[in-house]
Amino acid sequence: MAEEYSFIVIGAGGVGLAAAMYGARLGLKTIVFAHSYNSGAPIGGTITMTNIVENYPGFIKTSGLYLSKLLKDHAESYDLVTIRQEEVKDASKKGKFFLVKTNKGEYVGKALLFATGTNVKKLDVKGAKKFENYGLNFCALCDAPLYKNKTVAVIGGSDAACREALILAEHAKKVYIIYRGEKIHPEEATLKLLKKEPKIEVINNTNLVEVKGTKRVEEVILDKEYKESKELSLDGVYVAIGRTPISDLARLLGVKLNEKKEIIIDHKTSETNLPGVFAAGDVTNKPFKQLIIGVAEGCTAAYSAFEYIKANF
């Protein structure tokens, strides 16, 4: 028999945890699912893979892991909040209610929130898939110490890519940033740190076209010469070329997406096109992706869910 809740939250990142906390404060019996398909991210979501956080109000400087723990502890301090590490397989509408099926059970709710976040984009070049987890990685914070005194490269030119390079520079002897564009795009604070780090070198206007090695990554092939060669010897490659919304479950339910597969929401209420269905955080079409913005959206979604439930049940 399905367990009954007022508010079902899919996604246990900072956004989902904030929504659960706020839902509980409004008296909603809430369940949160830490869906396992989000890049293996633990409870706390993507922020757990961020080393230093300096842009979350109230914390001059903290770690992503610590901040996510505080969010989790806050949510769990309410008796009305339940967090389950289960993979959500299906979400559907049954009369006035929503039915959510996981790999372990079935759950019925009056309102539903997608706080599913994003997955890392994979590198679509020859050899990339073969060497995933064998020198080709997606999280510097997770395993940068493995490359102590070695040579690595980060693929991408965003602020996130530059921060990956800074983490790697704490361990590696040399870090390349390989970017297809004319100029990398770090935030000003990140740029200042880059300029102070002699281990980091930027290779612009260049694409990686192949990853090579025997059992592990040994070199990459570039589409143009760097120091008179298209071959670059490396011990590791970190991919930071962006992220894609985890929105398939919402799409199958009938939620409208944009061309980027982001969930379209009313930015005042976090409502989707379906009554009783809300979305918040990086999975939505909010242009500025930051934890503080996602947390605010999650709280807005919880309040909107409360108003929806009050009006319809």
Protein architecture, described:
The protein is an alpha/beta fold and 313 residues long. It has two domains: 3-120 and 243-312, FAD/NAD(P)-binding domain, CATH 3.50.50.60; 136-239, FAD/NAD(P)-binding domain, CATH 3.50.50.60. The chain is built from seven helices and 21 strands. It has helices spanning 14-25, 64-76, 140-143, 159-169, 188-195, 248-253, 291-312; strands at residues 3-4, 7-10, 30-33, 52-53, 62-63, 81-84, 88-94, 97-102, 106-109, 111-114, 118-120, 136-137, 151-155, 174-178, 200-203, 208-213, 217-226, 229-233, 236-239, 243-245, 277-279. The strands form six sheets. A five-stranded parallel β-sheet has the order 6-3-2-10-21, with helices on one face. Helix 4 links the parallel strand 13 and strand 14. The mean pLDDT is 93.
CATH homologous superfamily assignment of the largest domain:
FAD/NAD(P)-binding domain
How many strands appear in the DSSP assignment?
Answer: 21
CATH top-level class of the largest domain: Alpha Beta
Main sheet record: 5 strands, parallel
Give the overall form. Answer: elongated
Taking strands numbered 1, 2, ... along the chain, how are they ordered across the largest sheet? 6-3-2-10-21
Give me the strand/helix succession.
EEHEEEHEEEEEEEHEHEHEEEEEEHEH
User: Unreliable runs, pLDDT <50, ≥5 residues?
Assistant: none
Mean pLDDT over the full residue set: 93
CATH fold-level name of the largest domain = FAD/NAD(P)-binding domain
Summed up, the domain count is 2
How much of the polypeptide forms β-strand, as a percent range?
Answer: 25-35%
Helix content, binned percent:
10-25%
CATH architecture of the largest domain: 3-Layer(bba) Sandwich
